[in-house]
User: Fold these one by one.
Assistant:
Number 1:
Amino acid sequence: MQKEDQILEMLEQIIGTQGEHGKKLDEHSKKLDKHQDILDNHSATLQEHGQILRALLSGQETLKAEVDGMKLSNAREFGDIKEEQRIISTKFELLREDTWANKVNIHRMKNTMGMN
């Protein structure tokens, strides 16, 4: 019976050790559950940040398109203004020449009439 007692004693030790291991496994399971919750929170935060970044990128692209459109519009307007300025400058030059010719004619007429 001594062998049986030894076997029973060893089985009790094994059962005790298994109980301790079971407790440790339960503790680790709880820790893993907490870590899983933390990972889930981080995952949700990362998804939110991804949505925010996509919205910012989309907004930037929209603004860039608007700025590009404004640049193109301003370039067209500047070209039109430059053309108008060239036309006005040409007309002013012609007007100046006409005025000078009129002054010369008036001076000639005065000389002819003896008004000087």
Number 2:
Amino acid sequence: MPPTPAAPATGRAPDTTAEVRVPYGPLLTFATDVLRGRGLPDGRAATAARALCHGDLTGFTTHGLTNLARLYLPLLDSGRCDPHAEPETVTDTGAAVLLDARRGLGLWAAAEAMDLAVERARTHGVGMVSVRGGTHFGCAGFHALRAVEHGMIGLATANCGHQRLVPPPGGAAPMLGTNPLALAAPAGDHPPFTLDMSTTVVPTGRIRAAARAGETIPPGWLADADGAPVTDPAAYDRGEAQLRWLGGDPEHGVHKGFGLGLLVEVFSALVSGSGVGPQPAAGTVPTARPDDDVGYFLLAVAPATLRSPADVATAATGLFGALLACPPHDPGDPVRYPGWHEQRRSRERTAHGVPLTPALHDELRAVAVAAGLAFPAAVPAGGAV
């Protein structure tokens, strides 16, 4: 098994001003081949690669290919993630299923769980699949959108296992993870509504990306032990700053962000029996870490089992069309909803190449060399795929 290459160490902040565009199709093939080389079966390697590249296509780059060498290959190489894992059905009531992912790669395990939820929703109107024993599943929106492909509404949540990153409001010790959630719904004739968010102000990936780039961050993302804002992103990994919940402080609704984080913990961990943030990790696997035994909650809702599909589509077109038609304060900045920009960005990047920072481009080329693979050639400046 080829070793995971270390990120290039240049001794200076990486140059992020001159992006490199790489064709999406060959980039997807490259990611699939890398994961297949780590032992994943062909179909699951392809699904995982699509989940990973989804971040780069839509603009959620902190959950895209930047995590290939930094997160997913180390998971596989260390044995914390089993490339040959086969999920086990623990309970099946028809509309609701409990699975044990058995340390499978979350990028495909959560996707397959949502596909199962969709299958059950066709019969029951709703399908819920709860998963324990998982690993990091990437962009929550990718999994939620799998329901939209079938005309359904998808909800995807994940906790962070026993990982503790954020203290409760007024608390001195971290207790929960960033606990992401995503809701995706058909919007009729318009791009799907896709809300993909952490319940903290930003995910840890945004903090670390800023640190790698040598940038400062806005006040409000991090705070020190006294609650004062911290703008040096490197302070987070030095243990000198903590993430903040959405809302930030009591005057601006921090209880809402914290409450959403707990909502995700309940759905993802209490329902499935996965690792829970506020409890110490048992560590049944010798190489287990606090961010193992992640829980997922995948829900598919089929409104067309309750109403005429044509009526649902007409109502969705009207709802999201009315939002798009809302008069803007600035005529040059029209009103949009979550998911609109992501679809536009995805289409543009599919046509003209996926932008990579020079640092990430170098990292992925190093992965290709270590794996004995060719890396896709860049798209010429101003060119199309």
Number 3:
Amino acid sequence: MERLRLLEDRIFSISTFSEFEQIALEVFDFQIANCEIYRDFVQMIGISKPNKINEIPFLPISFFKTHQVGSLDNSELVFKSSGTTGMERSQHAVLSSEVYERSFLTFYKQRIGSPEEQVILALLPNYLEQGSSSLVYMVDCLIRESQSSLSGFLLNAIEDLEYRYREALAIGKKVIIFGVSYALLDLAEKGADLSKATIIETGGMKGRRKEMSKEELHLEIKRGTGVEYVSSEYGMTELLSQGYSQQNGYFNIPNWMRVLIRDTNDPFTYVLDGKTGGINVIDLANLYSCSFISTQDLGKIEAEGLKLMGRFDLADIRGCNLMIQ
């Protein structure tokens, strides 16, 4: 285990692409040896040992619905995706909560700021109802890190949210609001002035409202709350790392995470930057499950970062994801 602890430290210390590629290939070797379903998949498609990251096979994300995807036994946590009634939920067995917390806390502090300087409010009713949510786990940890009695999960108490917002500003705290799409629309329709808050939309109408594009959604939220822009979180049950969108809608991701864009007609071919295709994610924080995931999202890489373009047709809607553009 000492060797794995050292590997964890190296993962979260990555600063260059060459470091990333070297460690990714080491993680591939470890997961081929220890993750049975990933090893079977790689053998089935006949891929030999890769020498660079674009030669690494990516496990289809649907395997998290049908198989136990893990590189070691004795998982500490099991996260489940959100879903509508009757929908099969993905499951992600997490060996180490410490690795997950290290991943999301490190990048949150880099992109959003220090929780100790913030009041963190959460409008995540459907995730709370269904339970076993990685998003709820993350936000709960951030709330505790804020060390503020004003931080917390709120359901439909809009007046309470406005009160906490005003009190936070009065004592010089920044306000961060995490919210599912329909809850943020409910909030916007109340016309509350939240112009100094940072709103992070986590996706998910879940049949509560009509689907709309991300631009339409963010425009409605901006109109109703007065914020200059709405950020988004790109994360999912199957990954232990997240990206956050900037004001221009492009996503930044941590140094231990990479996105490759595959051809929509040939999953083993990659497209040039600026071209839309399927998103393959390397998340080295997934050390103890599978770090190489072929998602059902569409996107493209441009100079500004990752741009989400929607989802493949006939793909079921999954939790912790953005609205289709």
